[in-house]
Amino acid sequence: MRFHTFPFPTIVLTLAWCVLAAPALPQDRPEKKEAKRVWTNDELQHLAARPLANAASPPASEESAQTASVEKHYVRAKDPKWYVSQLKPLQAQTEQIDRELRTLRRARKDGRGTTGTFALDQDTEGVTTDAEIQVLEVRRKQLLLRIDELEEQARHNGLDPGSVRADIPEAPAEPTEAPGTALHSDKTATDEEDPQIAETESSIEQEKKQLERAQKEKELLQRTLDLQRRQVVANPEYLTRHVGRSKLLWAEKEIREKEEEVQAEQQKIADLEEHLADLKLNRPPKEASEAKRAATEETGAKKDKEEKNEAYWRKRFSEVHYKMRIAQKELDLLQREWNVLLLQDDPNPAKALRQSITRKQINEHRKKIGEKKAEIRQLRQEQSDLEDELRHSGGDAGWSRE
Question: What is the pTM of this model?
Answer without folding.
Answer: 0.61
